[in-house]
Amino acid sequence: MRRSVLSITLPVQGRPVVHTVEVKHGGDAQTGVVRAGLYLDGHLRLGSKLPARFPVAGGHIEVRTSEGGMRRCHFVGDDGTEQRLVPDPRSAEGRRMRFAREHPAASGLIGAVSILLLLIGVGVNLLQLVEPISQIPPIGAAVGTFESPLRLPLWLNLALGFGAAAGAIERAMRMRYHWLLDGGAGT
Question: Using CA atoms, how far apart are residues 125 and 164, in angstroms rounded to an integer?
Fold first, then answer.
């Protein structure tokens, strides 16, 4: 089971306290509910199902996931300022962040390819999905039928699906979320 661990150090009563959020992706074995835990200096203080909002000194920490990983993990101060929590360097998000820092051009290229894979995969699948939906008699009578201009072989549809999934996972590792690109993957 994959997990995300992100931290931020905040002052509590004049001393620095490490606030760590841990999310175990995939959820509970029985219920499937994904939960997050808030640790202060390594001690579990709060737990919640996601999305979560943990009250902390000076504000709160917001946590959301998508199907591919982390969607949002930010400290929001009482004054409205936001600060992203920093991923554990050993986590997938931490390794992706380090790669982006050490190889910004390659990271940018990978990010652009992930968006392209998502757009192509979603666009092609939507075109092919509209045709059978439009052939349902009440829908066809109301709006007419649609014939998709694309007839792709199964292997290419599968490849596009896997490419879109890989793009979604890459975006989740960078904690990037856009309602249009990643909307189908939000929780």
Answer: 10
